[in-house]
Specification:
Number of domains: 3
InterPro entries: AAA_16, DUF4062, NACHT-WD_repeat, P-loop_NTPase
Pfam family, one: AAA_16
Keywords: Coiled coil
CATH class of the largest domain: Alpha Beta
Order of helices and strands: EHEHHEEHHEEHHHHHEHHEHHHHEHHE
Protein name: DUF4062 domain-containing protein
Radius of gyration: 30 Å
Distance between the termini: 24 Å
Oligomer: single chain
Low-confidence stretches: none
CATH topology of the largest domain: Rossmann fold
Structural class: alpha/beta
Length: 513
């Protein structure tokens, strides 16, 4: 109802017909599952969604991260951005995580707040830590940022063959990749030592240190699950534990499935972080029915090539569970959808009003200036008077009239004017291009804002609708003498010329008090 009354703040998302999920997991240990999903699972879910008028979409960044993104250290940022998009547009589940025995890749931050970086360097110098010069070489200060920060330079800017994909430079490219692996390991070690020591000295907060130690997978889970208000219903977890995968395993083969140090010993710190992630963060923040758990025996073979009977059975059950859990989550989301049915007229009207509010919000974001005009409009709206003329704002194309009116629409409630607002930016939607549709939708919106049943207009001609529109304005004024009805109508020239709309006969010359 707040949207119908013209409120422009905290607007709900326009209802979507897309079920868009972000698939999160470590990569090398989940090849088998990622291979089977497009073959056995996604086609069935696409069919299921199509039968319900929905579109099924999957974002799997492990297949789509380019060398350019790696070169510029944008992997984490790109993943987080995609997760936010999924949460925003999906009308069903939006985040699916697959957890295994690997905590995963733990990069160091590509951007560090200025004072924090300088604290790390100061501690490194005081403690005479190795590689502090290397960190200063790879991070450059950005004084234009507010607050100032230090950014990790692109790999290619320092190692010129790293991103050279030509065949003749294959050896040099391989050498540069080895160099970067060594450099990144040394930078990571220095930063972690520095922040630990800075924390012990009281120079940094423990919470600020987390980003130097957590994995990309945990970052994704924080964004997709822990920061989501509807996380219990919109997230799914498939937790696979490989048994017998210990320090006694043949670690050269097991390295894809568990975190190892440079010396090929198990990385216990990463394993502890993984345990905390699974037990304390995921399982305590997700609906129990949205979790599937599997115990799979480690046999020394990668799951995607294994013909072990238990492994094949696991992949079959995993596929069935994925389909079943997704279908249940989609059905539940549809049942809990409290939005208006989109195929009814009231549903279309709600979406129409929301469209104009969203469009105006977008147009007004970069608006500035025009203070004299805004004050004149504010004075016009706040004056108490009898019948009066409409206020007309006109100007050449490109003057910024739409941005101005959009800004005013967002200001009226802040001006403490008791009002219902009707906003139409003509020509920006199907229902705002024809004056007959426009007047019909405005009449219904005003009646709904009055909490009255809208009149039936099935057999109306244009003359009937114009008279009803004028009467609706009078009725609002009579029933709400202490409140204003504000109509903001933009870009009349974008209306079709049907019903001689450009002659403005549909708008009363005098408006009611």
């Amino acid at each position: 109802m707040e949207v119908i009354r013209g409120r422009m703040h905290d607007l709900p998302v326009i209802p979507s017909n897309a079920v868009r999920i972000f698939l999160s997991s470590t990569f090398s240990d989940f090849k088998a599952e990622r291979n089977i999903l497009p073959k056995k699972v996604y086609p069935e879910l696409q069919k299921f969604c199509n039968e319900r008028g929905l579109d099924f979409q999957v974002v799997d960044m492990r297949w789509g991260v380019t060398d350019d993104v790696m070169n510029d250290h944008l992997v984490s940022e790109l993943c987080i951005r995609e997760i936010r998009t999924c949460k925003k547009v999906s009308c069903g589940p939006n985040f699916v995580m697959m957890l295994g025995n690997r905590y995963g890749y733990r990069p160091f931050p590509s951007v560090i707040e200025g004072k924090e970086f300088e604290t790390c360097v100061q501690v490194a110098e005081e403690e005479n830590l190795d590689d502090r010069e290397l960190v200063l070489e790879w991070y450059t200060k950005d004084d234009n940022a507010v607050p100032a920060n230090y950014s990790l330079q692109s790999i290619g800017s320092k190692l010129k063959f790293y991103n050279d994909m030509s065949e003749e430079r294959e050896r040099e490219r391989a050498d540069d990749k080895k160099k970067w692996n060594d450099i990144s390991t040394r930078i990571q070690r220095l930063l972690r030592l520095s922040v630990r020591m800075a924390t012990e000295k009281g120079l940094m907060k423990t919470a600020d240190c987390e980003k130097y130690f957590i994995s990309v997978t945990e970052e994704e889970i924080q964004e997709g699950l822990l920061k989501a208000t509807d996380n219990k219903l919109k997230s799914l977890c498939f937790h696979r534990r490989l048994s017998n995968l210990t320090a006694d395993s043949e670690l050269k083969k097991a390295g894809r499935f568990v975190d190892l140090k440079v010396d090929n010993s198990i990385d216990q710190e990463a394993q502890d972080l993984l345990s905390e992630l699974a037990k304390e963060k995921v399982m305590k923040n997700i609906a129990e029915e949205n979790v599937s758990e599997y115990e799979v025996e480690w046999t020394g073979e990668a799951l995607e090539v294994s013909q072990h009977e238990q492994h094949l059975e696991y992949l079959r059950v995993f596929s069935e569970d994925f389909v079943s859990k997704m279908k249940s989550s989609i059905e539940l989301s549809l049942l809990l959808d409290k939005g208006i049915e989109k195929e009814t007229y009231l549903g279309r009207l709600y979406l129409e009003v929301l469209h104009h509010a969203k469009f105006a919000t977008m147009k007004s974001q970069m608006f500035c200036g025009r203070s004299e005009i805004i004050e004149a409009v504010k004075l016009y709206l706040m004056q108490r008077r009898t019948s009066h003329c409409p206020l007309v704002i006109h100007g050449q194309s490109g003057f910024g009239k739409t941005a101005l009116l959009s800004h005013i629409a967002r200001c009226v409630h802040a001006w403490e004017i008791s009002c219902s607002l009707v906003l139409r930016l003509f020509g920006t939607s199907p229902l705002s291009s024809n004056i007959f549709d426009v007047l019909q939708s405005i009449v219904v919106q005003i009646n709904l804002s009055l909490k009255e049943t809208p009149p039936v207009m099935d057999d109306f001609q244009m003359g009937d609708l114009r008279r009803l529109f004028w009467k609706t304005l009078d009725d609002f004024s009579e029933k709400h003498p202490d409140s204003n009805l504000i109509l903001i109508l933009d870009s009349v020239d974008q209306l079709s010329e049907t019903f001689r709309s450009h002659q403005m006969h549909w708008l009363p010359r005098l408006l009611p008090p």
